[in-house]
Amino acid sequence: MTAPRARQEGRLRRLAGDLLSLFQGLGLTFGYFISPARVITQQYPENKASLRMTPRFRGRLVMPKDEAGNHRCTACGLCEKACPNGSISVLSEKDSAGRKVLGRYLYRLSQCALCNLCVEACPFGAIAMGQAFELAVYDREQLTLVLNQKEETTTNV
Amino acid sequence: MMETQEKISPPGFRTGSRSDASTEEYYLNMGPQHPSTHGVLRCVLKLDGESVVEVVPHLGYIHRGIEKVAENQTYLQLIHLSDRLDYLSSFSNNLCVCLAIEEAMQIGVPERGEYIRVMLCELQRIQSHLLWWGVFGMDLGAVTAFLYGFKEREQITDIFEELCGARLTMNFFRPGGSWADVPDSFLPRVRQVISRMKGALAECHTLLTNNVIFRERTQGIGVLPAATALSHGCTGAVLRGSGVAYDVRRHDPYSIYDRFAFEIPTGARGDCFDRYLMKMEEMRQSLAILEQAAATFPGGPHRAKERAAYKLPPGSYYSQVESARGLFGVTLIADGGPKPYRVKFRSPSFSNLSVVNAIAAGHQIADLVTILASLDFVVPDLDR
Hints:
- The complex is a heterodimer.
- Chain A is of the alpha+beta class.
- Chain A has 2 domains: 2-38; 61-156, Alpha-Beta Plaits.
- Chain A has helices spanning 2-34, 78-82, 117-121, and strands at 61-62, 88-94, 100-108, 128-129, 144-146, 153-154.
- In chain A, the strands form 2 sheets. Chain A has a 4-stranded antiparallel beta sheet with strand order 2-3-5-6, with no helix packed on it.
- In chain A, a hairpin with a 6-residue loop joins strand 5 and strand 6 (153-154).
- By secondary structure, chain B is α+β, with helices and mostly antiparallel strands.
- Chain B has a single domain, classed as Cytochrome-c3 Hydrogenase, chain B.
């Protein structure tokens, strides 16, 4: 007589435990619902003005310039050799004294894997990974950039 | 009639046709665009009603020929390709390539560099498991778990972003260490993660592990015997869930894993619930390793002196690591030049997926979704 009753009680207890497990989960989510301070969601793109990337953020390649528009690139081509995807072309030219200087620094964002190897290879700190992260454009020609001009412009090359 | 049916049956199936007057088997595509295949994996199912008779996974939808591409890259350049295999454990993959190069060129790693490597790999294991935990919940219909998994994962991803500027494709380790030292905020943030994760894991257990619906849908589903797991080359949580205590960190210690105390959890039955519990316990063990490493984090240089050129002496070099999904191995065959002659990646997802037919046969389609989620594969890692 006692064995079926014990089994029934065991079944009831398990059912109660099962129901409790559902309500425990609901209680957890409800706790977040009533305390919005624990929510970590960022309101992008509304917060775009205050949104800052970390200093080491690897956006697209940029060539830092001073106020006069001078860069530190010597057209040595080490970044071009370091690039795994051929996304950099350093086109050098001779200046009036016959020295090799940078003509055009072509950067193809469409081929770039943002791997940072070019920045590591540069002995002069002439290039860096930028902070920009919204890199989509409407025309793929806009993805080929000339980095050493005052305004980094697109090219049709 | 039978002949025409033989003709239209898709390739790859081993079971014969069992169609007669009472039942008719039919074929169904699951994927390559299906939420539970986590990418572009196509499974062709042979079904009898709603129960699965046979599963044939078809790969190749995201094949990029990475091993061939790597033959045309220098040894430094091919590290970034390993990010793009299992993108959820890119630190482990980077480390594996670097270990092979270091073994070939006899490059040592400074103490601090080793600690950075171990801590990042363990952080990434937790991060990867959190994502898997959320996705596992979502595959079973619990979208809440997905959001909570990502919420906890975010704080670890932020550490990575501050450290190396990337959140997924790190390309951080180099032969002899890493390309940058950790920022000053690294240790405090790791300690913050350690203290926060304990509460987060309790939340995970409340939301999913103890949930009766979740238990009913995972317990006794997809039982994988240890012998089958071993013969298919399963590693990681899939193998440990079946009761085999194999972990590369313990059995072939690389870096400085032999200095840390951690346990290898093993399951009793090898069902989806056991595989789930393995991952949850692994997160706790990773936190223990992180705690020990953070307590003894040394100063000094983070990278050995850079070589002018990384040219491996001719020969074959192999290294293996325990990534978040299991054993990840790299074979580099060098001919003395600046580029490898042949590169082979041994990915854990591929072997782990190979048991899907052995354990899914006889279950319902909804259980197949559970099984696929519990095997925890990353499709770019399957295909390379």
